UniProtKB/TrEMBL annotation:
The keyword Methyltransferase applies. GO terms for biological process: methylation. One of its GO terms (molecular function) is methyltransferase activity. It comes from Nostoc flagelliforme CCNUN1. This is Ubiqui/menaqui biosynthesis C-methylase UbiE. Keywords: Methyltransferase, Transferase. It comes from the Bacteria.
Length: 72
């Protein structure tokens, strides 16, 4: 991958970071009401707990459209 393409990707995702955060945290136009939002956060918790139980691995799991740095 050339440096120019990589830089374009970085700029693109940085420009959309707030939108991804709104989607992940169910804010604004992504708010689906208390019950649906809670179901979403419960499902996210299951994924996070599973990843923490797996621990450090030599390969990377990419969760597409998950926002930026949300899986800590």
């Amino acid at each position: 991958m050339t440096d120019n393409i990589l830089e374009q990707q970085i700029q693109y995702y940085c420009a959309r970071a707030n939108e991804y955060d709104e989607w992940f945290y169910r804010k604004g136009r992504y708010d689906r009401g208390a019950q649906n939002n809670q179901r979403w956060f419960n499902e996210v918790a299951v994924i996070k707990n599973t990843l923490h139980q797996i621990g450090v691995v030599n390969d990377i799991l990419e969760c597409k459209d998950s926002g930026l740095i949300l899986w800590k």
